Amino acid sequence: MKPLLFLTALVGLAACDTGVETRKEAVPPAEQPAPLAAVAPLAAAGPAATLQPETDPDLQQAAAVVRLDQLPGQGPVAAKLFGTAGGDPAMNGLYTHVAFFQGPDGGWRVFRLGDVLDYRILSARAGRVDLEFEESTMDEASGRIGSRTRRVIVGWPIAADGSAPAEVTVTPAQ
């Protein structure tokens, strides 16, 4: 009796599809990650250099950057979106900014767009980026945590002299 039960269970398990191959087909080829190339590990070719930790306090903020998206096509000024980790990760925690390079002497002019779970760039062109924010919400009366999707248009003037904008607007959008 036990061998028959074992054989039945074995045949049943063999018939099960783990779904790995069918899930691969469900993801369009363009969205599937490229396989990593098999590369032999490097071999040491000299003595190792020992590094000490950096002590510049500004690097603490740089290390908090968890997302970075360049915004090409902004004329002569370099622009980027970036997010830093902070706050309560259960309730948003991605402090999202847009920044414009003012030059070596001025560094970056940074504008904080919000505290969200994540953002997605919908479109970008000179002087404008359309974003979709995913956010946590809390109902103060019940204490329940929910979520919402919000779209915004982030805009700024493109200066003729190529300088960074002095202000940025954020407009609710559909």
Give a short synopsis of this structure.
With about 170 residues, this protein is of the alpha+beta class. It is built from 3 helices and 8 strands, in the order H-H-H-E-E-E-E-E-E-E-E. The protein starts with a helix and ends with a strand.
Would you give an account of this structure?
The protein has about 170 residues and is an alpha+beta fold. Helix content is about 15%, strand content about 40%. It has a four-stranded antiparallel β-sheet. The chain starts with a helix and ends with a strand. The N terminus is likely disordered.
Question: How does the SSE layout of this entry go?
Answer:
Blueprint: H1 2-15, H2 20-26, H3 58-63, E1 65-70, E2 79-85, E3 94-103, E4 107-116, E5 118-125, E6 128-138, E7 145-155, E8 169-173
Antiparallel strand pairs: 1-2, 2-3, 3-4, 5-6, 6-7, 7-8
List keywords for this structure.
174 residues, 4-stranded antiparallel β-sheet, alpha+beta
